[in-house]
Design a protein that fits this description.
mainly alpha
Length: 86
């Protein structure tokens, strides 16, 4: 049980760090999509970090949602890059 609590807390902190880094990248010209995903990661990461007792139960679903969101964003961005290149 302690491992699951620690993993959940680490997931929340990781989400917040990813969010901050993405917001910084967006402010340096990476696009509004990067900033939007960064803000979403920051909010979700903070919620997970501060409510990790509740989140422990749904930890596999949270990991799946993060993977799906970033996977969809990567697919969309790949089409944008391909379109921009000609």
């Amino acid at each position: 049980m302690a491992f699951l609590a620690a993993a959940t807390l680490i997931l929340g902190i990781n989400g917040m760090l990813i969010g901050v880094v993405d917001i910084i990248k967006a402010s340096q010209g990476a696009g509004w999509g990067k900033g939007l995903l960064g803000a979403l990661s920051l909010v979700v990461g903070a919620y997970i970090a501060f409510n990790f007792e509740k989140i422990m139960i749904v930890l596999p679903w949270v990991w799946g949602l993060f993977a799906a969101a970033f996977g969809i964003a990567a697919i969309i961005m790949s089409f944008q890059i391909k379109k921009a290149q000609g």
